[in-house]
């Protein structure tokens, strides 16, 4: 077996492993979309009742947006960093490109 074919096998194995992670994150993004929609609806009613948005929901909504962004970067091969739960949950103080 020459080095090119073993390199191709290694890369193919890596691609299949990434594909499994991509399936997981495709499922997770569906869950995140549901949670985000729930936050949107809850925030809307809180603004109707209180006249102002809830600061904790604002921060959570922002972190959900950043998490969605990280997942999309990974799914589109623009990032090799696997999002949460394989790395930290995106916080409010981190830049979007991280």
Provide the β-strand percentage band: under 5%
**Unreliably modeled segments:** none
Please tell me how large the radius of gyration is.
Answer: 18 Å
Task: Give the total of beta strands.
Answer: 0
Distance between the termini: 40 Å
Q: Outline, from the CA principal axes?
A: elongated
Question: What does this molecule look like?
Answer:
This protein is mainly α and 98 residues long. Helices cover 70% and strands 0% of the residues. The chain has helices at residues 3-50, 55-75.
Q: What characteristics describe this protein?
A:
98 residues; DUF4389
Concise overview:
The protein is an all-alpha fold and 98 residues long. It is built from two helices and no strands.
Write the layout of secondary structure elements.
Elements lengths: L2 H48 L4 H21 L23
